[in-house]
Every structure is written in structure tokens, then in C-alpha cells.
Give the backbone structure.
Amino acid sequence: MRGHARLAAAVTVALLALLCMVGEASAQAAVRNGFWLEFGTGTGTVRNTCAGCANVTVAYGPTNHLRVGRTLTPRVLVGLELFAMQSSELVLGPGAAPVDAENGSLAPIVIWYVGDSGFFLKGGAGLASGTFTVQSTPGEPVTTERTGSGLTFGVGFDIALMRWFALTANLGTYVTAIGDVRVDDTVVDDVIATVYEAGIGFTFR
Amino acid sequence: MASPAAGQLPRPGATSTVTACEGKQTMVAVGQALAVNLVINRADAWLFDWDWARVNFESWSRNLELGWQWDETQFGINMFVHPYHGSLYVDAARANCLSYWEAIPVAFLGSWTWEFFGEKWRPSLNDFWMTGFGGVAMGEMLHRVSRAIIDEEATGGERITRELAALAVNPVGGLNRLVRGQWTGRGVNPVDRLPESYMFRAKAGGRTVREDGSPAGPTTSPTLLLDVAYGDIFETESEAPFDVINVLAQVSPDGGGLNILRAVGRLYGKDLSDRDSWQRHQVVISQRFDYVNNPVYHFGEQSLEVGLQSLWRVGPSGFRLRTRLAGDVVLLGAIDALDAGLGQRAIDYGPGLGVIAELALERAGTTYVSLYNRVRYLRSVSGAPANHNILFSGLDVTIPVTSQLGIGAYMSGDRRRSYYEDFPKDERSYLETRIYLSWTFARETAGSPR
């Protein structure tokens, strides 16, 4: 948890620094054509719910993403996004033991730059996965994996530092629906986790 | 009035170079999409007295706090009414000159706000998907159809009749035209108002549906089918999404009224052959909407399809062979659930994959014989882990009596196999037969090759 707090603080400071750099970097002309690649990191919160859940359970952790794609027009980019978040002490549902969780998604995405600034909207749909590890008593840790449907929406802002390189601030949400999950002897009905992420990306074009 | 569009050439036979819409108003479109939610919510609360529509700050707060869940009941509402609701958002966007692509975020914004703020129930993830994706498909089709109905050059009673008909098809677009005084002013029709060709076919007769081995026995009823082709893959240049649309609808008194609504809109097409060649081939990317709700089973999906379509001239008699081979990515599908898993559960939702093979023999707008096989794999992500394999097969034969009238018969055999992690395998077969009279109206609106 302490590590997460440090990471969150670092990401926040970095995002603020990015905003401060907007003015200076705006002189750089953003070039969007051909293939592009972005990788990044950040911090996130996962809000987990289920069909029988009276409350949402929350956990925090680091996030990572990788996006590759092609520029359709200077304002529209399409690509593939791989996203992952790790968290611990996540309670999936009533009666279930806390788990170490990895939420991930692989989805085709569309990025739409609105106007001439670096501001963009992002949306996509694809596959989602959840990997949950619980310390069984007694015995070795037990891991359960589930795949399902994923949705992602987000906004971001590019700060072009060079014609082929930009820093990208990202705010996004990732919905991962993975169905019933068995944790130890407890089955949690219709698990849907929603991850909210704030992160920084390094974009190459 | 719209002005000529720079760089746009008129189609053969077209009389103008005017485009349909100019002056994009994004915020007005967003405002109208939200207004659609407000009007529908208040109508449900005040006129129909639905408790779920009596939203308040408490329900909004709870929905935002708890977030998504699956709505695993009410197949017809989820798979048809929600997409229609979504079509209103798209038509708000299209009425304000946003493109098909620009209308997509508006549809999802409208869907998201409805799920969180338009209903007291917790927001439903499948409704969000179906309203968004289904709304885009249905909305674009209705937008195209209403635009074809409206004739800017018509006057008097014909003009008002056309505007009223367009209003019924596309209420948001029609109201925009009314408010802007476009119901009466005489103008120039947009260049792409009508497709190069279109076909309308109605079939009326009887049908029998039964589940193989079920003690319930067959269900027999009258039935009406409408088969509409807006444009043709090989006659309409690929210029914009949904410039070619095929729709099949079946209505029967039993089994929920609307039994089938199947629509395919071309998003992109790449010709692989010359227009004058005796064999034509085109790589086609399409958006697909499927809704099947009959007395013995339910199935629905939103999918993207990539495939090869071909047209072969067969001899000098005018017969043509049309083939289609395609693969599908099912963004979200739905099928009856069989009491597996936890909680109340009538429908399984999940993504999947599919393959389609179709063959048809046609002449002068009449399809004599058609044969299809469609395979679907759905993986349930709502509830208990399950894999569903579904095979749809059918044969349709029509014998022309006159140039427009014919008699025909149809037979299909659909089979599903469902594999559950904690439940025995389930296998079922469904058979449907139809006998009908058909009436076909086909027209080419501009010079198109035969």
C-alpha cells in the first residue's frame, strides 16, 4: 500500500509537470501519420462488483499499457491496446477471501483527436481477463483465471516534444466482465471489475 | 439550403451535386441525445407509471457507486428495444450533420447516461453494449431509409405525406426538419439520396416451428416476411458506411411478434474485379445485427464481419450466382441460458466468433434458390462459464408466377450445443418450415451494369 501511495504521488507530480510543459511544447508540431506505438504506466483503482454484491469493493495498484496502431487520418488512429493492472487484498464478493488480482484487456481501439490540440478521446472493445490468487488454508496459493469481455473509454492529451515523440497523459476506464469466479470454495456471481487509471505514455510515431 | 459540395461528382443519372447535410453541430447533437433520454424517462414515469423510471438523486448515487451488472432477463427488451433506443441517439447526431463515425461516441454517451441516470435499476452492461452497437446499426439504417423517403422537390400533400412517413421511421430526424422549417421548403435532393438500386420483397404465408424431441410439439402460425435491399454490393460504389444495407424481418402472431430482425450494413468494400467482368468479387467489411425471437429459442448478436462476396453470370439467360463467405467477430451475443450458474438467469451473454457461407441463384431481381450455413461460437461472460456452438442452416426456393409474384418454401434446421463447467452438456435442434406467396419490387435508379 505504501508503494502504491508513492507511485500515485509520482504519477500525479508527473501529470502536473506534463501540464506545465504544455505551453512550451505547443510550439512543436504534432505529426500523426503512419504507424505509431505508445507504452506507459500509471496508477489505478479497481472497483469490483457482482450480481449479489450489496457494496463495491475497492483496491489500488499500478497499471501498464501498450498500444500499437496505424493512423487513418491526422485525427483518427486505430490500434490494439494491451492493458494490465495489479492489485492486492481485493474482495470479489460476499464470503470470498481477499485475493491478489490481475485485471487485463486486449482490445482494438479508436483514438479520435478532437480539434487541433493534442486532446483525444479513446474507445474500444475486446477481450478481458482476470487472474486471482488466494492463499488457501492450508496449502499452496490457488490461482483462478477467467476471460470475458472488455470495454475501454478514456481521454488523453499529447504533448509533442519532437516530431516523432510525444508524452501522453491518459485518464481511462476499463470494464472487465468475466462471469462467475470461484475463490476457494466460494463462487462469486457475475464479476464485473471497473478499473480507473491515470497514467503517462511515451508515444512514438 | 445546401450548396454544391466541392469535389463531389454526380452519380450517373443523378441531377445534383448537393450533399445531404452541411453545418456540423456536435453540441446540439449531444444535447438532443440527452433530451431523448429525458423525454423517454419522463414518459415512462408520468404516462406509463413505471417505477423503474422514477429516478432521483438517491438512485443516481447508488448506480454510480455500485456500477455495472448483467441484465439476464427480458430478451426482447434488451436485444431489440434497447438498440432502437440507441438509434435515436444516432439519428440526433446524423440530423446535426455528424458522420456515421462521429455518431458512435454520441450513441455510447447517450447509452451510458441512460443506464446510470435514466433507470432506477443498476446500470446493465449488456444494455449499454446493445444500445450502443445496436443503436449505431439501426440508427444508420433508419437515417438512410428516411432520407430516401424525403423528396425535397415534392410539394403539397405528397411532400407532407413523405415527411410524415420519414418522421415515423426517424422521429428525431423528422422533428429536426420540422423545427428547422424543412417540411415545406422546396430544395434540391442530395446526390446520394437514393441508392443505385433497391429491392423490396414481401412474403406472406404460414410457418411451423418445433424443437426436435420436445414434448411440446410444433407451433403453427401465419407469418409475414419483409426482405429489403438498399443498394447492391456490386452496383453501389463503396463511399460511406451503410451505403449498402440488407434487412430481413419476420413477424408472426406467436412467439413475441417480431421473430426475426437481421440487418447487415456495409462499412467498406474493395472491388477485386472489373465492373464489366462476368465474375465479380469484393472484399467486404460489414456491421451485423441479429435478433431471433421465436417460440422455441432466442438468439441475438452485434458483430463485425469480413468476407468475400462474389457474383457470377451463369450463361446467357440472365441467371446469376451470388456467393458469400465471411468470418465474424461477435462483439456481444445472447442466447437462452439453461438454468446453469447462480441467481436468476434466462440469457447468456458473451463475445464470440462465427463463419458464414451463403449461395443464391437469382435472375432479374428474383432469388430462385438460396442456401446458407452460419456457425456461431459464444463464450458466456455473464454467469457460469459456458461455451455455446450454434449452427444455422436453411434452404429457400421461390418459383416465379409473374415478374413480381411467386410461390415459395423455406426450411431451416438450427442446432445448438452448450458446454457448461458445472452443468451437463445440452444439445437441442430446432426446425422451421414456411410456405408463402411472395411479391417483389426491384428498381435501378441509375445506370448500373448487369
Remarks:
- Chain B has a mean pLDDT of 87.
- Residues 197-444 of chain B form a domain with the Porin fold (CATH 2.40.160).
- Residues 125-149 of chain B form the longest helix (25 residues).
- The radius of gyration of chain B is 23 Å.
